[in-house]
Structure formats: C-alpha cells, structure tokens
Amino acid sequence: MQNLASQIFVSLNKTDIGGETKSLNSIFEALKACKRENEEFLVPYRVGGRTENIAESVVDGLSNWITDNPSIADILTKSSQILVSGGAIYCTGGGFASGIIAHKIIENITNGISSGNCEVLENPHIINVSGMKYL
C-alpha cells in the first residue's frame, strides 16, 4: 500500500490544489475516508482551509502503479484468467479497505468477463485467511 500511496502522491503533485504542501499521511487518511456518492467516489483531502476531492489523482496513481509494476499487472492478468475459467477471486489486504481502490482493481480484473466470482472479503484491511472457507 505504501508504494501505491507514493504513486498517488506523485499524481496529486501534478495538480495545483492551491499551492499547499501535500502529505503522504494525508493520502492514507483520505483513502480511509473515501465514500461513494451518486456513482462517483469522493476521496476527501484537506488542503489548507478547504477539502478537495482527489479521486482523479487516486485513479491516475493506481494506473501508474499497475503500469510501473509488471508483477502487479501479472497478478491482475492471472486473476482475470481464473475468472474467465469460471473460478473465484477473493480480495483482501489494506488497499481493498478503500472503496475507490477496491472498485478500480475489481473493475480491471473483471473487464469483459461475465463469468466467475470476484469479491472483497469483509474487513479487508485485516489480512487473514477467513476467505479460505469459500474455496
């Protein structure tokens, strides 16, 4: 998650949000506070005296993270292959606790696939083996 947050930080620094200093820790807080409203994600990032939605920077950072990490791209491809073969994917880990991250990764894995099952386990921020009972 640290590497992904760093990519989001880089994407956020490409945008001008009032000349304020950005913080990696604040990115983690914004990802935790992520909400979905009217089919749109709100990732509230506090800048000075106002709150900015950094959803576009999150999506850009996630895309760069996948592109810059062939092993991540490979895992996503293999996950898609499991789904296309009728298998199931259960997602867990800290990144999946953020709605926008979970949504975009699942969207990537399931793109063009109508079979299989892909779901985020309950309390994904706690890496566990509770999903093993589904296998």
Number of beta strands: 6
Give the oligomeric state.
single chain
Number of domains: 2
Number of helices: 5
Beta content: 15-25%
Strand order of the largest sheet: 1-2
Structural class: alpha+beta
Using the alpha-carbon principal axes, give the shape. Answer: elongated
What Rg is obtained from the alpha carbons, in whole angstroms? 16 Å
Average pLDDT confidence is: 87
The first-to-last residue Cα distance is 26 Å
Topology:
Blueprint: H1 2-13, H2 24-32, E1 35-37, E2 40-42, E3 44-47, E4 50-53, H3 55-68, H4 70-84, E5 88-91, H5 99-110, E6 117-120
Parallel strand pairs: 5-6
Antiparallel strand pairs: 1-2, 3-4
Q: Care to describe what's here?
A:
With 135 residues, the protein is α+β, with helices and mostly antiparallel strands. The protein folds into 2 domains: 1-68; 70-135, no CATH class. The protein has 5 helices and 6 strands. Helix 4 (70-84) packs across helix 5 (99-110). The chain is elongated.
